Amino acid sequence: MGSTEGLTGPLADYECTAITTAPQIGQLNPPHRLLCGPGPGNAHPRVHAAMSLPEIGHLDPAFISMMEDIKRLLRYTWQTNNEFTIPVSGTGSAAMEACMANLVEPGDKVLIGVNGYFGLRLSDMASRYGGVVVQIKVPWGQVFSFEQIKAAIEEHKPTIVGLIHAETSTGAAQPLEGVGQLCHDHGALLVADCVTSISGVPCHLDKWGVDAAYAGTQKCLSCPPGVSPLTFSKRAMDKLMAREDKVKNWYLDMKMVASYLVGGKGATRSYHHTAPISMCYAIREALTIVAEEGLETRWARHREVAEAFWAGLAEIGLEPLVAKEHRLPSLTTVKVPEGIDPKVVTKVFLDKYQIEIGNGLGELAGKVWRIGLMGFNSRMDNVAVLLACFKDALAQQGYGA
Amino acid sequence: MGSTEGLTGPLADYECTAITTAPQIGQLNPPHRLLCGPGPGNAHPRVHAAMSLPEIGHLDPAFISMMEDIKRLLRYTWQTNNEFTIPVSGTGSAAMEACMANLVEPGDKVLIGVNGYFGLRLSDMASRYGGVVVQIKVPWGQVFSFEQIKAAIEEHKPTIVGLIHAETSTGAAQPLEGVGQLCHDHGALLVADCVTSISGVPCHLDKWGVDAAYAGTQKCLSCPPGVSPLTFSKRAMDKLMAREDKVKNWYLDMKMVASYLVGGKGATRSYHHTAPISMCYAIREALTIVAEEGLETRWARHREVAEAFWAGLAEIGLEPLVAKEHRLPSLTTVKVPEGIDPKVVTKVFLDKYQIEIGNGLGELAGKVWRIGLMGFNSRMDNVAVLLACFKDALAQQGYGA
Question: ipTM score of the complex?
Answer without folding.
Answer: 0.94
